[in-house]
Write a sequence for this structure.
């Protein structure tokens, strides 16, 4: 089973490259962002709590996200594996993911970290906000906050996987196909 953590700051291209990974390797896409947006759209209690945080550019509670991931893993036990997109975002979530997978006789094969300069991230997120209407891409202040939170809280997750020899940095600039070619070279070596 192939389990990949697709990692990078907001706007790095995780969602786009996840689609390519899913199609090529027949993996299940587990995007915490998509799962939480679905909860918000459905008007659930979890969605209301998540919306209050996300609209301010803040993270959702670790346990809420871990519960969502655990449930989705159990729904897709017979698949080829998973692409974790937007998860783990904290070191506590990385430990929890390892425990969840180990309890199911699985493991993370590697973390693919998309590396994109901040100026390009800001440009991509601003454009995405204009096209999508997403609240977390609606203002420069929220975008700036999200990138700051990423560097302060999320980037240390890379250290967790680097210590396990599972961190693979990939340049996230270039055409979709160029970036995916770099990703595929890493995945094919797992």
């Amino acid at each position: 089973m192939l389990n990949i953590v697709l990692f990078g700051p907001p706007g790095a291209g995780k969602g786009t490259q996840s689609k390519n990974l899913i199609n090529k390797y027949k993996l299940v896409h587990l995007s915490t962002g998509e799962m939480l947006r679905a909860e918000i759209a459905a008007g659930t209690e979890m969605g209301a709590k998540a919306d209050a945080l996300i609209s301010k550019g803040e993270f959702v509670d670790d346990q809420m996200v871990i519960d969502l991931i655990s449930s989705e893993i159990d729904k897709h036990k017979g698949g080829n594996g998973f692409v974790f997109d937007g998860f783990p975002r904290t070191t506590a979530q990385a430990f929890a993911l390892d425990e969840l997978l180990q309890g199911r006789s699985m493991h993370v094969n590697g973390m693919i970290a998309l590396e994109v300069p901040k100026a390009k991230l800001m440009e991509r997120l601003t454009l995405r906000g204009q096209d999508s209407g997403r609240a977390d891409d609606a203002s420069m202040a929220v975008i700036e906050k999200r990138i700051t939170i990423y560097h302060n809280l999320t980037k240390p997750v890379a250290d967790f996987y680097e210590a396990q020899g599972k961190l693979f940095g990939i340049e996230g600039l270039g055409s979709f196909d160029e970036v995916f070619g770099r990703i595929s070279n890493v995945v094919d070596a797992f």
